[in-house]
């Protein structure tokens, strides 16, 4: 029985930590050698990036201990820890180059965690990890070419080309959220992330409500607009609140339009959508993104691109990070 590996999905709002068992198949084997890996124990914490780097890292360490206790294993018995972090990552150096949502620059996260936990630590981008997990065990269906787009606190992306994660020369391939989607607009409102993330959707709804646009959202949060989360947006959307429908549909249209361009650029057959906003809004949101992507893709055969929602949900990043760590521990490239 192989030693368990901890997978961590570090997001701008939450961190998900899981002890994953059953990792150890050959690269390219969708199942990882039999059944897909199982999460044996979990911990979830708020990231609280505003408290600073060191506080976030201490919560990560505490979360690993909690997840291990939940799985009834010791930290010292782990084979490795895999962590997916937001932003631009250098996996070879184990370095967070720039994470906008965490306000981090050049943080040697893998080394810091290795020193604190006493086990090997492997770092990758959070959406790369989620996409890798989905492709091995979920909605990716073991595709050779795949784009994953995660809409949450920000917008992250990951690419699989020719069956492997594609990083590019500077390790930032797939970062669709930082593409300029609205070049003529004001600074701070130009990129895909600044228009289609959960943060941007909530900010836009808040501004419109404070400008006296009618919505049921204030009644859903007892008048405290700071409490608007993805689930509140989804509840208002499901209730056909006109303001929410307008804002969400606009975000889905722009997101799908940009995805359609990437599908054309790379001739991709499949796109997986995930992240807190996507998961809360569900299939109606995915269908809107798919419609826009298929409309904009070229030529006709690219318009048959499959656009699907995550199957692993909030375990995608945990399982994917653990799988990447298992591959790298074995000397394989994910």
Descriptive overview:
- The protein has 334 residues and is of the alpha/beta class.
- The chain has two domains: 5-136 and 314-329, ATPase, nucleotide binding domain (Nucleotidyltransferase, domain 5); 142-310, ATPase, nucleotide binding domain (Nucleotidyltransferase, domain 5, 2-Layer Sandwich).
- The protein contains eleven helices and 13 strands.
- It has helices at 53-71, 109-117, 126-137, 193-196, 198-210, 217-220, 230-238, 242-266, 276-281, 283-296, 316-329, and strands spanning 5-10, 14-21, 38-46, 80-85, 88-90, 95-99, 104-107, 121-125, 146-151, 155-161, 164-165, 270-274, 306-309.
- A hairpin with a 4-residue loop joins strand 6 (95-99) and strand 7 (104-107).
- The longest helix has 25 residues, at 242-266.
- It starts with a strand and ends in a 5-residue tail after the last helix.
Give me a quick take on this structure.
The chain contains 11 helices and 13 strands. The chain has helices at 53-71, 109-117, 126-137, 193-196, 198-210, 217-220, 230-238, 242-266, 276-281, 283-296, 316-329; strands at residues 5-10, 14-21, 38-46, 80-85, 88-90, 95-99, 104-107, 121-125, 146-151, 155-161, 164-165, 270-274, 306-309. Helix 3 (126-137) packs across helix 11 (316-329) and helix 8 (242-266) crosses helix 10.
């Amino acid at each position: 029985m192989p030693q368990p590996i901890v997978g961590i999905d570090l997001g701008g709002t939450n961190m998900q930590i899981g002890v994953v068992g059953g990792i150890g198949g050959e690269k390219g084997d969708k199942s990882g050698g039999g059944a897909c890996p199982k999460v044996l124990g979990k911990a979830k914490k708020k990231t609280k990036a505003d408290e600073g780097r060191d506080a976030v890292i201490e919560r990560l360490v505490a979360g690993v201990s909690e997840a291990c206790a939940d799985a009834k294993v010791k930290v010292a018995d782990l084979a490795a820890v895999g962590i997916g972090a937001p932003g631009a990552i250098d996996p070879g150096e184990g370095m967070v180059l720039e994470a906008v949502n965490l306000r981090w620059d050049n943080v040697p996260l893998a080394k810091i965690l290795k020193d604190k936990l006493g086990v090997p630590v492997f770092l990758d981008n959070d959406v790369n990890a989620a996409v890798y997990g989905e492709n091995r065990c979920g909605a990716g269906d073991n595709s050779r070419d795949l784009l994953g787009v995660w809409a949450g606190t920000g917008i992250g992306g990951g690419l699989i080309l020719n069956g492997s994660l594609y990083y590019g020369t500077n390790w930032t391939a797939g970062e669709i959220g930082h593409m300029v989607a609205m070049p003529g607009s004001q600074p701070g409102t130009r990129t895909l992330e600044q228009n289609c993330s959960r943060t941007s959707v909530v900010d836009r709804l808040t501004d419109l409500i404070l400008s006296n646009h009618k919505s049921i959202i204030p009644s859903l949060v007892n008048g405290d607009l700071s409490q608007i989360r993805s689930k509140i947006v989804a509840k208002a959307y499901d209730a056909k609140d006109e303001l929410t429908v307008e804002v969400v549909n606009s975000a889905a249209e722009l997101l799908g339009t940009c995805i359609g361009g990437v599908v054309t650029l790379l001739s991709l057959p499949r796109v997986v959508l995930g992240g807190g906003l996507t998961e809360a809004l569900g299939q109606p949101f995915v269908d809107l993104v798919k419609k826009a992507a298929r409309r904009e893709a070229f030529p006709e055969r690219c318009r048959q691109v499959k656009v699907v929602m995550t199957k692993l949900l909030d375990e995608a990043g945990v399982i994917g990070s653990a799988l990447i760590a298992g591959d790298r521990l074995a000397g394989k490239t994910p």
